[in-house]
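G., the chain you wanted modeled:
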Amino acid sequence: MQEPTHAVRSASSTGGYWQRFWRDISPTSNTHAVWIEYNEDLLGKGWYPYTLSQHGNKIYKTNIPDAKTKQYLGRITPSGDRYLIHNPVYRDDLSRQPLTIAMSRESRATGVQQAYRSIGVLRTNASTVIAPETRDRYKNHGFSYPTAVQVEGSLIVAYSENKENIWVSVVKIQDLPEELST
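Predicted structure as tokens:
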């Protein structure tokens, strides 16, 4: 595992926990899944590398697909809903699209928030025109390295296209994907 997202705190009457995601960058036997780590230490001292055992860290494989790309985990205020921005589709040519936003909405009845039950596409159809290589083999077609910040009622998302252009998308929080009723 490598490159964890920044941590997001979920508070509760019993104390709450921190959560962050990891990506599997194994060159062989890659799981193509997002991994998750929990930490109940209020000051965040229970994270890897402070705790060096998998179960001590509480790092687990999720069923969220991943293309071995950088992810971004965030929390909407004041609702506490979490979002994960990443590339869920692995391709042999290593292209990175679509770039998506998955939502984990807090259950209003139970206060439990674990599952990401809705997803929306932020960007797809990256330009096929790519500048000549300057870093030999390190450019991938598509969208990479997302980061986001909430500004009032909008989520401002920055990301690269083809590892050379920076784009910014503004998504109204009210337009983020809702959990579908079953």
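Residues 8-175 form a domain with the Neuraminidase fold (CATH 2.120.10.10).

Shout if anything looks off.
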